[in-house]
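Duplicate of #3305? Posting structure anyway:
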């Protein structure tokens, strides 16, 4: 096995294969816990779209991902798993292929130095939920390394921060409450958004958002300091 053949390498090879077939491919797509029955956020290695077809691919070095792939069945027309071709002759692989084909209905990609082989056709189905399709963003095409934890994936939190940054730039001196009312965010409620984002701002974790006089928000530190100065003068 080539040391370079990591899960990220597998995902990269499958991604190129799907793009060559004319599919739009998104990497590291997060589905919020509120949109599924998993109890926590889940992240798909690859999501591919062409026309009305939505496909999920989970990429691993072995066959330990059957349960992981199963979670995506309600959200896609087809679910694939992709593994290294080095497992091609093992008894474990033959049993896994039987499960893939007969029990779960997954498709199977086998990936090696010779390329990507579609070893098992998926059992097509209708999507029971559009949540994953709605979670796709253009940033998923260019950000992150599918199959590698901590690969800089685009998340709903990052999108919320981007929306907040843009709002503050356009509304210098606004309150956090006004900003939350004016943006799209991923939190379940206004209160949870207010609490979580307030903490992030106070810890300096959101670039381009700073507190000034009376907790108002500014896009630069200089703006926040001017806010303090103007506020102090008006108070005298």
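Output from current build:
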């Amino acid at each position: 096995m080539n040391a370079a053949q990591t899960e990220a390498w597998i995902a990269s090879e499958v991604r190129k294969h799907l793009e060559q077939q004319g599919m739009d491919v998104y990497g590291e797509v997060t589905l919020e816990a509120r949109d599924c029955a998993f109890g926590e956020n889940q992240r798909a290695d690859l999501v591919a779209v062409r026309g009305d077809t939505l496909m999920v691919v989970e990429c691993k070095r072995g066959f330990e991902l059957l349960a992981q792939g199963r979670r995506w069945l309600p959200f896609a027309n087809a679910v694939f798993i992709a593994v290294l071709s080095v497992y091609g002759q093992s008894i474990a692989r033959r049993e896994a292929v039987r499960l893939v084909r007969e029990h779960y209905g997954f498709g199977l990609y086998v990936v090696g130095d010779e390329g990507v082989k579609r070893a098992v056709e998926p059992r097509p189905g209708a999507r029971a939920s559009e949540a994953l399709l709605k979670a796709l963003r253009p940033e998923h095409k260019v950000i992150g390394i599918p199959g590698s934890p901590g690969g800089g994936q685009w998340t709903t939190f990052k999108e919320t921060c981007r929306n907040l940054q843009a709002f503050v730039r356009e509304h210098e001196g606004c309150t956090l409450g006004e900003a939350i009312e004016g943006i799209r965010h991923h939190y379940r409620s206004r209160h949870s958004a207010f609490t979580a984002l307030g903490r992030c701002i106070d810890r300096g974790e959101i670039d381009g958002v700073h507190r000034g006089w009376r907790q108002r928000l500014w896009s630069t530190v200089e703006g926040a300091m001017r806010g303090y100065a103007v506020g102090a003068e008006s108070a005298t």
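Confirmed duplicate; merging threads. The longest helix spans residues 156-170. The chain has two domains: 7-141, 156-235.
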